[in-house]
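Quick question, first post here. What does this chain look like in 3D?
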Amino acid sequence: MRTRGLLSYRPARRYLTGQAISLLGDSSMWIACGIWVKTLTGSNAAAGLSFLCFTAPSLLAPLAGLLVDRVRRRTLLLAANLAGAAMLTPLLLVHDGGDVWIIYLVMVLYGTLNILIAPAQSALMSTLLPSELLVSANAALRTVQESLRVLAPLLGAGLFAALGGHAVVALDVVTFLVAAGFIAALPRTEPAPARAATTGQSQLRQLGRELSAGFRFVRDDRVLRQITIGSAVAMLVIGFGESTGFAIVGDGLHRSAEFIGVMQLAQGVGAILSGLVAAATVRRLGEVKVAAAGLALMALGHACMTTAVLGVVLGGKVLIGIGLPWLVIALLTLLQRLAPGHLQGRVFAAFEVATTGPQTLSIGLGAALIASFDYRIVVGIEAAVLVVAALLIARISRRTAEPEPVREPAAVPDPEAVPVPV
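> Answer (accepted):
Ran it through. C-alpha cells below.
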C-alpha cells in the first residue's frame, strides 16, 4: 500500500490527524517558552535553561519504555494527552520574572511526558497499522514534523508577540485535547499487555532485568546492534552543528546571525521533500540502505559547509535536510518491525538512550572544538565521522537485515511476561 492506502485506512487517518495537530501545539509551545523566559528575564542563559529542563527527563527513558510495555498503549496515550492539557494550566499564572520557575517546572513535566509519548506512539503504530503501512505512517509524521519546524516557530513567536504567552498555552491545551479525542476514537484492537512473571528473584533485581530487557534485545539482535552502533557514532558529531552554525554564517559567509533562519529554511525544504519520497524509497531499497544513504547525504551536506560559497552551503543544508528524515524514518520503521510486541517500548527507549547520550556529549565537544580550531576543520571532522557511520550501517547484509515484514500473532509466548487482562 502507498500513502493513498494509508489515508484510506480510517484508524491511520484518525491517528495521524490527531498527532499532526498535537505536533503543531508542541512546536509552538517549545519556541514560545524560550521567548517567554527571555522576555521576562532578559537573559539568554535563562532562556536556554528552559530547553535544558525539557531534555533533562530523558534519563528516565528506560522506565517510560517499561511502562509502555505494561499497559495498553491507546489508553496510555489518551491519559498522557489529557495530562498534557492539565499540566500546562499553571503557565496561566506566569506574569513576571518571579514566575519563571513555573515555566521551568512545566518544561520538566513536558519533557517527562515527551519521553513517555514517543515510545507509546511507536508501539501503538506497530499494533494499530498493518506492517506494510508502517513506513508510510512514519514518513507522514516526519514530513509533518519537518514542515512544522519551518512554520511553527513563526506561529509560536507571532502568537506570543501578538497576544502573549497565555495565548500559546491555550493553543497547546486545545491541541492536546483534540489529539486525545482522536485517540479515543481509535479501535480497541490491542492485545492484552504483559507483566513480568514471578521468578523468585528480589524485586529490585527483577525490576533491573525488566528495565534492561530492551538493551539486551538490541545487543542480541545483530541488525539492531549494528544499526545502534552506527547511529551512536553519527550522534557523536551531530551536536557539533549547535556550535558550527553561527561560525559558518559569520566567518564563512560573512552574514549576520539572523541568516541562520535562512539556513534552517533550506534544511526544512530538503526535509519536506525527503519525507514525501521516504516511504517509496524504503520500500524500494529497504531500511538499512536508506539509513546508510541518509547518513551519506548528511556527510556530503556537511562537506559543502566547508566552502564559503553561498549556493553550495545552502545546497549542503538541503542535502542534510533530505538525509536526516531518511535516517530517522528508516530506523524507526526497523525498530517497529524487528522488536516483538511485548518489548516495543523498551527497545525504543534503549535505542534512544544509546543515541541521545552521544548526541548530548557532542554538543559540549563541538563547543570546545570550535573554540580552538577553524570551523572548517570541525565541520570536516563531522563529515568524516558521518561517512564512517554510514559504512558501519551499510555493512549489514541485505539478507539478514531485511526479511519480509512479519506481524507477530498475539499469542506469541513471552519468556519474561504473561498476559494480564485490563
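The chain is about 75% helix and 0% strand.
The longest strand covers residues 194-196.
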